[in-house]
Amino acid sequence: MAETTAASGRTPDSTRRSERSRRAIFDAALALVGEVGFARTTVEGIAARAGVGKQTIYRWWPSKAAVLLDAYLDLAAGAAEDGEAALPDTGDLAADLRTVLRATVDELNDPRYEAPTRALTAEGVVDPVLGARFVERLLEPQLELYARRLRAAQDAGDVRPDVDPRVALELFVGPLTHRWLLRTRPLTHAYADELVGYALHGIAARP
């Protein structure tokens, strides 16, 4: 006969227990990276913080980077459920892009996202498998939202038909990411607005 819990008389739910452990591991990984940085975060530290054995972590993930990536994807998925999974389309392309870039600035400056994003970006450079998964699971879906909005703007006649949306979107997200990664200057809403103006209207002198 299966062993039952003394309090309820029911067989323990291993699926529920595994989910609790998974959530605890995700929370621990994100917290530790924010507190001590990725380099000083260890599987042992994550396990101790989560209250699980390190063998539990290694049963599900091959490395601390893999744990952090899944934790970050879970965090991003939760944020997506709270908002719209698309760029706004009010008919005003400039205003829509400013709205989204300002939200991106806020996210990159948010301690919950900043430390894990920096860690995964850096680790993805030296670990091509992790980097490819980071791009496929997180970056690519976000970039496609930009491309979709720019295609809609082409259909509306607001963007030239010969423009490649996948190249054009880099005019917005590329400089933002560059400034954030290198910390050359503060990442602000004003900067996001300037990017939109420069990208849509160019920098050459007008007649």
From TrEMBL:
Q: Is the keyword DNA-binding in the record?
A: yes
> What ranges does the record list as Polar residues composition bias?
1-12
Q: Can you provide one Gene Ontology molecular function annotated for this UniProt record?
A: DNA-binding transcription factor activity
Species whose genome carries this gene: Streptomyces kanasensis
Cited PANTHER family: HTH-TYPE TRANSCRIPTIONAL REGULATOR RUTR, TETR-FAMILY TRANSCRIPTIONAL REGULATOR
Stated name of the protein: TetR family transcriptional regulator
Query: What keywords tag this UniProt record?
Result: DNA-binding, Transcription, Transcription regulation
Task: Give the residue ranges for region: Disordered.
Answer: 1-20
Annotated transmembrane regions: none
Q: Which SUPFAM superfamilies match?
A: Homeodomain-like (SSF46689), Tetracyclin repressor-like, C-terminal domain (SSF48498)
Q: Per the database entry, where does the chain bind DNA?
A: 42-61
Note the Pfam families from the entry: TetR_C_11, TetR_N
- Domain (HTH tetR-type): residue spans on this chain: 19-79
